[in-house]
Amino acid sequence: MFARIVSGALLLGAVMAPAKAENMNADEARKFIAGKLFAFNCFDGTKGIGKILDDGSAQGNIQLGGAGLMRGARLPANTLQVRGQQICASIKGLPFEPCFNLDKNSEVSFRGSVSGLGFAYCDFRKQGNGRVYLARSVSRPRAIHPEPTQSADARAEVKPVQSEPALELRRSSAQ
Is residue 58 part of a domain? Predict the structure, then answer.
């Protein structure tokens, strides 16, 4: 009986958890998001990491559709703008200016969805040190001791090296 009550409470908690998300107005969103680094995963598989700056610009890295290389991206100042109590985007070439619903899920995460298109969303999670994270995601690992490049002819002429006898450590007889 006790197990049923506990499992029922856990199930109820899991169902109720999404309802805890609180909608953020423009001022709350600015305080929560601006200048902080967030990793994101979107409904279509797109993922990345980036941050929105106080001037309405954005910068980061993105992998479209979850495939291919991670690419650097930057949106100019005033791309993201406050209109009433909503955040909207003004992107050249887009036939409309989408506005976003921003729902805070926890102290470190939120969901952003296009107003009127609830299925089009991205989940964002706050990350640690932005400079280090962005630098790591852009740089490629390098070999500690890179192999020297040689032509095929030079490789054919390589002769085996005779090793020197190993040094022996002996105790000194004089102490």
Answer: yes
